[in-house]
Amino acid sequence: MKNFLVVDDSRVIRNVARRILEALSFKVEEAADGQQALDACKRAMPDAILLDWNMPVMDGIQFLRALRAAPGGDAPIVLFCTTETELTKIQTAIEAGANEYIMKPFDSEIVESKLSQVGLL
Amino acid sequence: MKPDDFTYFTKYIYDQSGIVLGADKMYLIESRLAPVARKFNLATIDLLVGQLRGGRDANLQREVVDAMTTNESFFFRDGKPFDQFKSVVLPQLLANRAAKKSFRIWCAAASTGQEPYTIAMILKEAALQLTGWRYEIVGTDLSTEALDRAKSGIYTQFEVQRGLPIQLLVKYFKQQGDKWQIAPEIRAMVQYRNFNLLHEFAGLGGFDVVFCRNVLIYFDAPTKSATLARLGRAVASDGYLLLGAAETVVGLTDQFKPVPDRRGLYAPNPYAFRGPRATVLKFAGGGVQSPRGTG
Questions:
Q1: How far apart are CA B197 and CA B205, in angstroms?
Q2: Residue A91: closest C-alpha in chain B
Q3: Strand ranges inside B32-114, DSSP E
Q4: What is the least distance, in Å, from the CA of A100 to any CA of chain B?
Q5: What's the total number of domains in chain A?
Q6: Would you state the CATH architecture of domain B80-284?
Q7: Does the beta-carbon distance from B165 to A117 stay under 8 Å?
Q8: Is some CB atom of chain A closer than 8 A to the CB atom of B165?
Q9: Does chain B have fewer CB atoms within 10 Å around its N or its C terminus?
Q10: Full-model pTM
Q11: So where are chain B's domains?
Q12: Contact pairs from chain A to chain B, CB under 8 Å
């Protein structure tokens, strides 16, 4: 069973994501901001990360840069999942090491389609 | 819908499109016809069928067929067929057509354009190997409304997230408000034509590869067989046919054989009688060639 870390400051989004991912047989852990996510990754690197952009303490892009610079941090597959839909933001995310990008609002079909593209399904 | 109207309507759709609508499709029919009735200021679906029976309103006839045949489509739908296109079909084409440096691809159910544009993006990504090559992608569909959307190349945020890798979105799409439009150079790679699969294919010319996915499932067995027989004459003897995941040629035609271990990929059967071929086959090497990969 693969481990998924869901990083979002909204409990509602974390719950929606958890339900979708658990239905696809992933083991889900949650973090409410980038710092919590970084701490979770230092304890144990997840297989994949669903990552919000705008969060308090440490935002998604700062977290991603820190993760990719950390030992073993190039391993997790990172999917941004954000209301940021500007082309320039998407490019910034890819340059920082995001593997895929989901624009909110999303549904289970989009998540499934993105997961199979990055080889998680 | 009255039983008599239902019988008339399902026969009408069958004659026009080959689509078989069973009694279990009553709800689907009514939900798809309701917006058409509103558009033509007809208060009920009974009135709509009455008008259709009159047979004088060509616009209504077209819109009704459009409404019943328009189906959802995604970029890179089902993934696998496009992997096979890249790893099996395209290398074979490059080898077999090396002298002529040209090929033609047909999307027989282009719908709103996602499939032909997927193929166009794959070919664009392979531009280095295709330097000096000419190729055509022809997208046909019965629905003029779907084809208008295909030509516009404009998709919603939901549509560009189903199956399309983010790198390709960034590379080939422009943002327009909350919509995304595919780049002019990709749009220019596809020619669209309004075409009914029940009609003769000869006017379209011959093809090296045909994508005919998720169409045959709506047909009855005789219509499937007849369509596959016509496809047999349209596909080059060393070409390929790609069908949808729930579709097969087995038991329906001897024109094609499944390519072993390549689900959804079919090659012309060299031992079948195919009748006169479309003209493109003249440069395909003339005599019967053994389709690669059939072992």
A1: 14
A2: B170
A3: 102-107
A4: 6
A5: 1
A6: 3-Layer(aba) Sandwich (3.40)
A7: yes
A8: yes
A9: C
A10: 0.88
A11: 3-69, 80-284
A12: 38
Q: Do B170 and A94 touch (CB under 8 A)?
A: yes
Taking the C-alpha atoms of residue B182 and residue B180, their distance in angstroms, rounded to an integer, is: 7
Q: What CATH number does domain B3-69 carry, 1.20.120, 1.10.155, 1.10.10, 3.40.50?
A: 1.10.155
ipTM: 0.91
Q: Which chain A residue has its CA at the smallest distance from B78's CA?
A: A113
Q: Which of A87, A94, A98 sits opposite B175 (nearest CB)?
A: A87
The boundaries of the domain holding residue A61 are 3-117
Answer yes or no: are the C-beta atoms of B138 and B106 closer than 8 Å: yes
Residue linked to tokens 């997208």: B139
The residue to which tokens 């060509």 are assigned: B58
B191 close contact with A: CB closer than 8 A: no
CATH number at residue A23: 3.40.50.2300
Per-residue pLDDT in tens (0 to 9) along chain B, 295 residues: 889 999 999 999 999 999 999 989 998 999 999 999 999 999 999 999 999 999 889 999 999 999 998 778 899 998 899 999 999 999 999 999 999 999 999 999 999 999 999 999 999 999 999 999 999 999 999 999 999 999 999 999 999 999 999 999 999 999 999 999 999 999 999 999 999 999 999 899 999 999 999 999 999 999 999 999 999 999 999 999 999 999 999 999 999 999 999 999 999 998 887 666 555 544 444 444 444 443 3
Nearest to B161 among A91, A103, A116 (CB): A103
Residues paired with A6 in a beta bridge? A30, A50
